[in-house]
Structures are given as C-alpha cells and as structure tokens.
Amino acid sequence: xxxxxxxxxxxxxxxxxxxxxxxxxxxxxxxxxxxxxxxxxxxxxxxxxxxxxxxxxxxxxxxxxxxxxxxxxxxxxxxxxxxxxxxxxxxxxxxxxxxxxxxxxxxxxxxxxxxxxxxxxxxxxxxxxxxxxxxxxxxxxxxxxxxxxxxxxxxxxxxxxxxxxxxxxxxxxxxxxxxxxxxxxxxxxxxxxxxxxxxxxxxxxxxxxxxxxxxxxxxxxxxxxxxxxxxxxxxxxxxxxxxxxxxxxxxxxxxxxxxxxxxxxxxxxxxxxxxxxxxxxxxxxxxxxxxxxxxxxxxxxxxxxxxxxxxxxxxxxxxxxxxxxxxxxxxxxxxxxxxxxxxxxxxxxx
Amino acid sequence: xxxxxxxxxxxxxxxxxxxxxxxxxxxxxxxxxxxxxxxxxxxxxxxxxxxxxxxxxxxxxxxxxxxxxxxxxxxxxxxxxxxxxxxxxxxxxxxxxxxxxxxxxxxxxxxxxxxxxxxxxxxxxxxxxxxxxxxxxxxxxxxxxxxxxxxxxxxxxxxxxxxxxxxxxxxxxxxxxxxxxxxxxxxxxxxxxxxxxxxxxxxxxxxxxxxxxxxxxxxxxxxxxxxxxxxxxxxxxxxxxxxxxxxxxxxxxxxxxxxxxxxxxxxxxxxxxxxxxxxxxxxxxxxxxxxxxxxxxxxxxxxxxxxxxxxxxxxxxxxxxxxxxxxxxxxxxxxxxxxxxxxxxxxxxxxxxxxxxxxxxxxxxxxxxxxxxxxxxxxxxxxxxxxxxxxxxxxxxxxxxxxxxxxxxxxxxxxxxxxxxxxxxxxxxxxxxxxxxxxxxxxxxxxxxxxxxxxxxxxxxxxxxxxxxxxxxxxxxxxxxxxxxxxxxxxxxxxxxxxxxxxxxxxx
Lengths: 350, 508
What we know:
The complex is a heterodimer. By secondary structure, chain A is mainly α. Helix content of chain A is 62%, strand content 2%. Chain A has helices at residues 2-12, 19-27, 32-40, 55-67, 83-91, 103-128, 141-154, 158-175, 178-187, 198-205, 209-229, 252-262, 267-274, 278-291, 303-316, 321-327, 334-349, and strands spanning 71-74, 78-81. Chain B folds into 3 domains: 2-195, Rossmann fold (3-Layer(aba) Sandwich); 203-338 and 462-507, 3-Layer(aba) Sandwich (Rossmann fold); 347-436, Orthogonal Bundle (Arc Repressor Mutant, subunit A), CATH 1.10.10. The A-B interface holds A 52, 121, 125, 128-129, 132-139, 141, 159, 162-163, 165-166, 169-170, 173, 178, 181-182, 184-186, 188-200, 203 and B 70, 74-75, 77-80, 95, 98, 249, 258-259, 264-268, 270-275, 277-278, 280, 494-496, 498-505.
C-alpha cells in the first residue's frame, strides 16, 4: 500500500515537485509549501497519514520503486513514472481502499478519536471485570481528562455502554475486509487482553510496519467518516468525535496573521507589527485562501482582477505562475495570481 | 497496625515492608534527612511514596530518567493514588501551566533535574510547604558514579531556596566514595545512613564464553527451549535487539517473543511492557530502556547478549530477576572483542577535543556578531554531538563562567585555562570509565566465586545463596530447576469472538 500511495502522489505532482515533497505530505508537515502542494495537486487525502514515517523508510521505498521500474529519476529528486508504473496504478486502483483516506480533514482529529476510543474500551472492559488497576494506554492528559468526564456519565451504565459499542463496532467491522477487521480488533486492549504492537501485527499479517500503520489509518478514516455522517447507528461512537474548535489547517504563524486581519489591519500594517516581510504575510493569506472555504477574497482583490486571472488560468490549463503572469502581460503580481489559484482550488473542493 | 503498614496494605497490596523500608520511613517521619542505599527491586520508591501520603505538605522527587518518572506516575495512578504528577521536557507548555497553577493539589511532584531550575516552577514551589525533597538515583551527583549528571550539582541551591526541607537521597548502587560525594554535594553531612547489601540470595551467576559471537543466538535458542520461563535479554543496540528477536521468533513458535527499546512508538512501548507484565509474552529482547521501574516478580532468567559498561549497571539489570524470591539465573554471553561495543559507548559519552575547540570557535564568532544566545539543537547538529556530550560541555562552560544561564559571556583570557582544564577532565573521566569497563571484563573472566567477585567493591560480605551460587562454585544449567507457572495460552481467534470477549458479549 505504501508504494502504491507514493506512486500515486508522484503521478499527481507531475514532475513539478521533488520526491521530498511527498515525504513531507505523508508526514503532515505544517508548512505553507506542503499545505499548498496538498491543495494544488489534490493529494490532500494523504496529508499526515504517516506521521511517524522516517526519512530512510521513505528513501528505501523510492529505491524500491526505481528497482521495480515504476519510476525513473531526473536530477536525483524528480520522479518520472514509467509505463509500468502507470499500469501498476491503474491495475490496483481498488485493491488498497486508498479512497477512504481523508488526511487533510481528519489527520489530527482521528488520532484523538482513536486514543479516546481505545482508552474507553480499555477502561470499561477492565471496570466491568472489577479490575481497577491497569496501566492506561496513553499518558496524554487531555485524553485522560476527556475520559474522566465521559465516565461520569456512564458510571452506572458500563455494561450498557459495552453492549452498544460492541454492536456499533461489529456492524462497521463486518462491512470492511476481514483482514482489516482482524487488524483493528487485534490492536485493541482491555481486561486480560493487551493489544498487539505494530511490529507484532506486521509479523502476524506478513506486512511491513508501515503498511500496518497505513491499514489502521485507512480503517480509522473510514470509521470516522461513518461516525460523522450516520445519525443513528453510531450513537455511542459519536461521543468520541473530536469537535475541533473551528480552526483552519494553517501554520501557527498564519494563524497569528489571521488574528490581526480579523481586527482589521492591512497586510503592510501586520508586516510592521509582526516585524515580518510583506511577502510572508501574503504567504499566510494564500494559506488561508486554500484552507478556508469562507475566505473573503474581495478584501484583497477586486472582482475584475479576479475574473481576468481566473479566465486566464482556466483557458491555459496550467498552474505555472510564470506562464500565467506572462500571458497577462505582467499586469498582475504573483500574489494576486496565487490568491486566485488558491481561492479557486478551494471552491472546487467545496 | 501502624499507619504506614495500613497504607502499604491498602495501596500497594503488600503485607509487610521489605528490608530497610520501614526504618527509612520512620526516620523521615521524625524529620531527619536520610541516605538510603537499597538493592534494586527492594522497593525504593515506597520509602517516599508512603511518607508523601502521611506527611503534611508536598513531596518533590527529582528523578533523572523520564521513562522511570512516567512509569512511576502511571503505576501510582493505577493503584488509585491520583494526586501525583510528573514535570519534564515532554510536558508541553499548556500542560505545564495547568500543572503549575494547580501544584498544591499534588502530593507527589516528580521533576527532572533540568526542570527544577525553571524559575516559574521554583517560584511556585517556594510558596508550598515541602515536607520532603527526594533525590532519586542520587549516585548521579557524583562524578565517579556511572551516570554523572551535572544538573544534580545544582540541587543544593534549589534545596536552600526551598528553605532546607528534609532530604531523602536514594540509590541502588553506591561505593563508599560515591556515598561521600552525595553527602558533600548535598551539603548534608548529618544524613542518617541506611545502607543495605546489594546481593540477593536467590540469584545465581553464570558466564558463557563463545569463540565467535554468532554462536550466541543458537545458544539462546537451546536455553529457551529447555527453560520456558519469563526471560529478559539485554542488548546495547536497538537494531540487534530487533534482529535477534526476529531470529528467535522464527525458531520457537511456542515462545512469545518481542523486542523493546526507546525508539518505539509510545503506545507500542506500553503494550509490550504490559504484555510482559501480564505474562502474554515470555521473552523480551530489550535495551536498558526497559525495566526501569517495572516490578514484574517472576522474571527467572536474565541473559546479557551485550554486557553494560560497568558493574553498577550490571547489578541493576540482574536485580530485575526473581523479585518473588524464587531461584533465578543471570548469564552473560561473552565472545572475543565484545569489549569493543561498550568501549565505543564510553567514547560517545565524552566530547572530543575537536568538538570542544569547534564550539569555542563558534562561541567566539557568535559574540563577535553580538549574538549571545546558544541554540542547543543547532549546535548539537552542527558538531554532531549527543545529549550526554552536550551536558558535559555546558557544565564545564558554566563552571568557567563562559556560559551563564545560556548567555555567552566574554571569553578573552578564559579560553586557554578552560581548554587545558576540560582536556584534563576528559582524559581523567575516560581513564576512569575504561577502568570501570576493565572491571566488568575481568569479572567476566574471573576464575573465582562470581558472587564474591561481583559484590566485593560494594560491601564486605555476601549472603549465603539460597539456591546455586555461581558457575564457578556449583552451578550448571543441567541442574537448574526453576519454578514454572501455568501458562495462559492465547488461542488465536477470529475477530468476531475476540471482539465479543473484549466487550463481554459472549454468545450463548
């Protein structure tokens, strides 16, 4: 699955970005470049799905792709897909269930959801067996705090909770491939049952540790989607959703800029206040345009400019800034062009 | 029944105190400062955990090992003692603020030696009534201890600022020299000493020598096939712990084997630890990161695939065997050139003069450009330095007033004196550590009673062994009869039954 995903990303970035950009994407690096890549090349579903990936594992996978003749390297950091590589992608489209990934939206929420769920199952399973001494799976104080609150509600209804969650999970697991269901259950811990580590799961399933991790994440994203939309059948699991305060997926620094913008300051003023270059503040605004579906474009660009740039890049079918700028006789600056690109990409997503 | 025993019963589930615990607790309750030298596995932490619940005020515990700190907090919480907390470099700033503003609610506050220097934290601690200040792993204060921590030397100032609360210094290994250092650097000459012998009568010692190190795995295989007992195998390298675990796994389908090291994902570490604790695993291939603060009573066999850099660490590691008092064996696997690995480890614990010189050059340059702050990560990366080397250099820079609270001071004439002084210290430390390494190597090669040879440097007498003594005196694996416990066999099940069992929804 790992190789397939890298290959797909490499195809989508069309030799315009280096292989390293795929690495940053999978790790979920919160830099404006990576976030922009995710939007521009429509690979946001894979954003942050392998947070613990290390560089050497990634490089090895690239080497394997080369050895398998799926890709060729240009300038040692740009990958070109071979015909064999493209065929491999086309032949395996359905095999790995990669379409369940939704990294851009879920990458942080799902981790929290999963830890909460695991800790709840561990706790209630032990309590139901009158075992009050067990070592919690996670030290995260926020997760533990959450569960304390949850427990207050269910104190006297632990067995009902177990029954309900059992049914909800059973329904979900029955609908997914058997090996995935087994993987999910093997990882869970409770009374007299300590879950298996990634390595143990890898040995048991004859998979690499990376693929185990990807499989689990894909199951979780699928579960998370189900729980999010369904209204009746996952009543209990819904309690574990992370109701993120409405924050955008933007860098911390961009968030600061956003705070100033909301207060009504201009780009130049913010640059002054924050002792940053105006171009940096502009980068932040581009980030917001990608991330915020309610982005107020009119504040930065008039309707006419927007229309001209939009028409140009639609006709030209390119995302290359320089080409667009030249086609428009250098009348508009890069910030304006990037902004329209970002805004458009967001509108299409929504 | 006295109060301390009641607490011991209620929270820790023990009927009686182990050797030394009650005496130390009594002295603490009477307000004395205490130095406790207790063998590994004797329950050192009980010596302050119980007073914390009895004394009025808050107890601070300085502990150098993050994993140990977190394990202890976890275990206390599992026992129902919830008002404990750990503050270290893993605590993020939100959590830290949260903890600091609620500090008085915690009876037991575990803090790393670096973190206690934090002004904000210290200011808050000053407002509390500190009933006891515990220095765990107190041997770290001594330059001759095997884990010298410069930050421990600053503890004496902290103690003063906190109005000199009673102290409790604890360690499992302390030669007389180290004991002297502890009293000296804590400025507490009147500490009451409670020193208990480190040897345990139910441990048996053996060494197995090979012509080549690639024979080790085969030997472990035969040993494990013969003795199906909870086993720990120690490695100095993460990679090798993984590889050998894999080789053993392929060989013994009946044994449940896993590896453990500090490089693993946090949830995975907890899972493996708990599997071993709950007897879901038989054999664990681990580095020294495993086992700190873990109290599994029925480890019967400890194999050293690699041996540590000195006897103190070795004693600590074998101390994890046989805590229930049943017969347990330690066996060291030795092949020619095995000294090379610990030697390299020792080298990596000290900075090279090249690194020292480049750092000085860098400091000079920075101050020329009017930059007076040090960026630790950046410098460590640039000079290829590890954490231990970094701590060592910073300590000496501070000592020579070249660095003051991460602020670069004018260097001028201090440079030459600093260089010659640090070079001398490095050479001295290196020689000392090599000597320590030679000690353990000659112990491995000894042709006398291993028990006596091992504990000689630490105490005058050894106990009479309860089972076999060592391979020199009377031991041979063919005669060993360990206690076996009935193994709960895990039957491989489909996910449906597994899920039903976990949620207690067994179908009729």
